[in-house]
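Progress narrative, Year 2. Work on General secretion pathway protein G from Trichlorobacter ammonificans advanced from sequence curation to structure prediction during this period.
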Amino acid sequence: MGRRLGTQRGVTLVELVVTVSILALLASVVLPLSWMTGQRVRELELRRNLRIIRTAIDDYKKAYDKAVEERKIIAAAAKSGYPKDLETLVTGDDFGGAYRVRQRFLRRIPPDPMNPPRGNDPPAWGLRSYSDSPDAGTWGREDVFDVYSLSNGVSIDGTRYRDW
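Result:
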């Protein structure tokens, strides 16, 4: 019952090298694609979060304008009708007693996926007030008219996240 050398089963060194080479080639193709997919997902999340915040800001302005139109409040010359900060969208506003309950426009401030908060810090967004120029890099602090990402990164299509 002796074994013959030719009947032993196993993998030769050449087969092993070819298999490892093929796996390395596949990995070199898959890794950049997975990075690109992750980047694309973060960019979609950034666009969605910007849309959510901007829609909440617009809804706040519509509620303010409706209160003025219905003569529940008097429009102040110095007030644009936009929220004073992003936190106002979460805590709500009754527009000086115009409504019985505080109207809330966001449950929470969504984070910037390109500039995520660290630890327990609140989400950080770049803010522009109604009186700021469209490309202002600093916030005038009168109100919140628009938000933008604080990331200095560049998107897959070559545009800066700050310009979205």
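Residues 34 and 40 are 10 Å apart (CA to CA). The radius of gyration is 28 Å.
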